[in-house]
Specification:
74% helix
Length: 239
């Protein structure tokens, strides 16, 4: 039995006005995930009340849970990074779950967004730039000095800084692509009962991968601002 499986994203069409920008099935799924999150945010904030109910209550519960986890990992600084970290978590989570809906992957126009390396690289680059900006804003002298002195340690710091976004991008891409391939192969080999088991497992994998990406992003942001935080505490103690 021949198994047909496309590893690379399928180009659906191009946008001539944007220089022939190719629109792939993974990008289309990504837009759907964004639309779901925007719709959820609009509904949750449409009629906000002091005592939340319904969708507002669900939204606030998710944010409180993320803030609690963030403060456990990074302390009070987690609140400043929450908008970025929470956005990354929610997008990856929803995109992963949309990617395992029945038909997504089998239908050429739709495929799991995070099984496309270009999308995970884009998110990793956002984290990388945010980390550099946060480190420079916290204490630019101390942040730049760690890449220079001591000499050998400085070079290691540069390598580590470059390796972090690479690790973020490939970890998420590899896990989601592996799940996509596994489910699609089983769907083509056996009846839907067995693949349904793997789909259930992929629900957990999608959530865990979103959480890992967000927590690692928070950890990198926290490490980048550690010098500035220490300096501020020292100045406060001195005064």
């Amino acid at each position: 039995m021949e198994i047909h499986l496309e590893i690379f994203p399928h180009e659906l069409f191009t946008i001539p006005i944007l220089g022939g920008l190719p629109i792939t099935n993974t990008l289309l799924t990504s837009w759907i995930a964004i639309a779901v999150l925007v719709a959820f945010a609009l509904v949750a904030t449409r009629d906000m009340r002091l005592v939340p109910t319904g969708v507002q209550n669900a939204a606030e519960s998710i944010i409180e849970l993320l803030l609690g986890l963030g403060e456990q990992a990074a302390g009070p600084r987690a609140r400043a990074f929450l908008p970025l970290v929470a956005t990354l978590f929610l997008y990856i989570w929803i995109a992963n779950w949309i990617g395992i809906l029945p038909g997504v992957g089998s239908i050429p126009a739709l495929r799991s967004a995070n099984s496309d390396l270009s999308i995970t690289v884009a998110m990793a680059l956002i984290v990388f730039v945010s980390v550099q900006v946060a480190g420079l804003r916290a204490n630019w002298r101390a942040y730049l000095l760690k890449f220079v002195w001591p000499p050998f340690i400085g070079q290691m710091e540069i390598l580590a800084e470059v390796a972090r976004p690479v690790s973020l991008a490939f970890r998420l891409f590899g896990n989601i692509l592996a799940g996509y391939v596994l489910v699609e192969v089983w769907l083509q080999l056996v009846p839907p009962v067995v693949p349904a088991i793997f789909l259930g497992l992929e629900l957990g994998v999608g959530l865990v991968q979103a959480l890992i990406f967000a927590i690692l992003a928070l950890a990198f942001l926290s490490l980048a601002t550690a010098h500035g935080h220490t300096s501020a505490e020292a100045e406060a103690t001195a005064h």
